[in-house]
Write a structure and sequence with these properties.
Elements (H helix, E strand, L loop, with lengths): L3 E3 L4 E6 L3 E3 L11 E7 L13 E3 L4 E9 L4 E11 L3 E2 L3 E2 L13 E2 L4 E10 L5 E5 L14 E2 L2 E2 L3 E11 L4 E10 L2
Parallel strand pairs: 1-7, 2-7, 9-16
Antiparallel strand pairs: 3-5, 4-6, 6-7, 8-10, 11-12, 11-15, 13-14, 15-16
Length: 183
Amino acid sequence: MAFTEEIVDDEIYIKFLGEATSFEVETSIPQDQIASISWSPSSNLSCTDCLNPNLIALQNETFIVTITDLDGCVYEAKIELRVLERPIYVPNVFTPNNNGVNEYFTIFGDFEPIEIVSKFAIYDRWGNLVYKVEDKAPDDMEVRWYGDFNGQPAKQGVYAYIINYVTVNGETKTLVGDVTLMR
């Protein structure tokens, strides 16, 4: 006679977006007594019939692992995956004065979860486009504004920016703000 026993000690994994992780399921059932292992949902897991699948953290998700032993007893455990965004920092002042410090405006942070910067645009106070690049890796040297316009140093002042980027899970994010150029 088969019965189902739910394991009440749920596990919670907290990972950053795009981070690789491995679930580690421990059971008191000897390996040679396990008839089957299944995961639900099974998408994005490296294996669906093992105790320790690997995956890339793309979204918050609840997984159920079901273990059936040779006697037909079924055991279930719930595993919660919580995905955190990595912080992206955008400065509000830069000083392109050739002293080797703070020479350009760009985004800072851990770029692992960013697939591509789809737009990096700088505008003057009247809305005129001053600098723009599209579809670049976040660490590309072109995703930097050195405080120039048409080959000349731009005037000191406040400039607006729009930065669009796509994360590893396909989500588009937008950063909008202003930056002060000081000489």
